[in-house]
Specification:
The chain is built from 17 helices and 15 strands. It is of the alpha/beta class. It has 2 domains: 130 residues, Rossmann fold; 271 residues, no CATH class.
Length: 423
């Protein structure tokens, strides 16, 4: 398989130069191991397994680390949690000028890279034990620039957040994707699905659900009814890009709101579900309100909803939500490359006006609407206009309506449409 350069690679290299430990987290099949194999080809690498104590790492972590001096990649670290404490001791020793068979030219930085496919347990322990010693990098599936192999060192989101008025005045630049919007949504954005034949895509996602998601879920929680959990994941896919009502979510398939909350937390813990908090003008209330939830990958959502081909997405009631899910994921992925990522919210007034995504950085707010329309109009900026009227004291940048359009065009006095495949 041909390696497609990942836009997080430069950030990974910067982190290795500054921190003793870098922890890369993300769901299975997003390309963590492939990234490291190509970007850190000279490093020793060990992949852990839940059933086998590889190299006696769990039984004798110090001896294991003696046998594997840094620089070292420890893949799927959640299967060898005993190593975390031993790594902390060695990092502290290196910082104090001690010696533990370390041939690294970087001294006490760039010693270990850990990867994990769960947010809980070991990664939580690592974040606490390695505080001040480790940097964290969250990784998702491909962004559009990676699929197009176009590079994204100075991507559109960075330019928009840096100089929004100048950005909307720039000539349009697009990636030149070869797939239609519907085909990209149906295929999804996991690297392993990018090169598969269309006829193989449904089997891939069926296997992904069985071998990846269920395997990780078993490690996080004790589920007696796997059929019910599968129904729950199917329902979550149907509700992607909507505000989360736990009471309604549980009631739809006959479970308590508490169980629905716990199972959503399990999906978050395996990086299959992301949430965007609601924005409130009162800083204290920023964390209140209903969050909006997104299934991590549109290809998985299509598989769970039994959408058999890209062509059947035309006119499907879920297509608009899938497009919003893909664009929200694109914003997260591009944000992750920035030294200072923005806060990401959604906004909805009591009267029903809403802004799909609201980014905040350096005291400025960047409103975005997401529309699956080739001809967005002023009407599509009504939510952004309502937000400006509701918060006249805020510094609000020109708003964007992100859509499958050909070029940047002005829709209202302050708002513009932007191609979803912009460079």
């Amino acid at each position: 398989m041909i390696y497609k350069h990942r836009i997080l690679a430069p950030k990974l290299q910067r982190m290795i130069q500054q921190f003793s430990v870098v922890i890369i987290s993300g769901s299975r099949q997003v390309g963590k191991s492939t990234l490291l194999r190509n970007e850190l080809s000279g490093w020793d690498s060990v992949v852990f397994d839940p059933a086998i104590d590889v190299g006696n790492a769990r039984q004798d972590p110090d001896l294991f680390l003696n046998n594997h001096p840094p620089p070292l990649i420890l893949d799927e670290i959640q299967y060898a949690p005993e190593l975390v404490g031993a790594i902390k001791r060695r990092v502290d020793l290196a910082r104090s000028g001690g010696h533990f068979n370390n041939p690294s030219a970087n001294g006490d930085v760039g010693l270990y890279v850990l990867t994990g496919s769960q947010q809980w347990s070991v990664l939580k322990s690592a974040s606490e034990s390695l505080a001040g010693r480790a940097a964290f990098l969250d990784m998702e599936g491909f962004c559009l620039a990676e699929i197009a192999e176009a590079g994204a060192e100075d991507h559109w989101l960075h330019r928009y957040l840096t100089a929004p008025e100048q950005f909307v005045a720039e000539p349009s630049k697009r990636l030149g994707l070869t797939r239609t919007v519907n085909e990209q949504l149906w295929r999804g954005l996991l690297p392993a699905a990018d090169t598969l034949e269309r006829t193989t895509i449904p089997e891939f996602y069926n296997a992904y659900l069985r071998t990846c998601i269920e395997r990780d879920v078993r490690l996080l929680t004790d589920l007696a009814d796997w059929q019910q959990f599968r129904r729950f994941v199917q329902l979550a896919a149907a509700l992607t890009a909507q505000e989360i009502n736990h009471s309604q979510l549980g009631r739809d398939i006959g479970m308590t709101p508490q169980t629905a909350q716990r199972w959503l937390a399990t999906l978050r813990g395996t990086f299959q579900w992301f949430e965007t908090p609601a924005f409130h003008g009162n800083t204290i209330k920023k964390i209140s309100g209903k969050p909006k939830g997104y299934l991590a990958d549109t290809g998985l959502a299509c598989s769970l909803q039994r959408i058999s081909s890209a062509s059947t997405l035309s006119g499907h009631p879920l297509t608009g939500a899938l497009f919003e899910t893909a664009v929200a994921g694109e914003i997260r992925k591009l944000s992750a490359t920035l030294p200072t990522p923005p806060n990401i919210y959604h906004w909805r007034s009591h009267s029903g006006a809403e802004v799909d995504l609201l980014l905040e950085r350096d005291g400025t707010f960047y409103p975005m609407e997401i529309k699956l329309s080739t001809r967005p109009s002023r009407q599509d900026t009504r939510g952004i206009t309502s937000f400006r009227a509701r918060y006249p004291h805020l510094n609000i940048a020109p708003g964007l309506v992100i859509a499958p359009v050909e070029r940047v065009e002005q829709l209202s006095e302050n708002d513009y449409c932007l191609p979803w495949d912009s460079v």
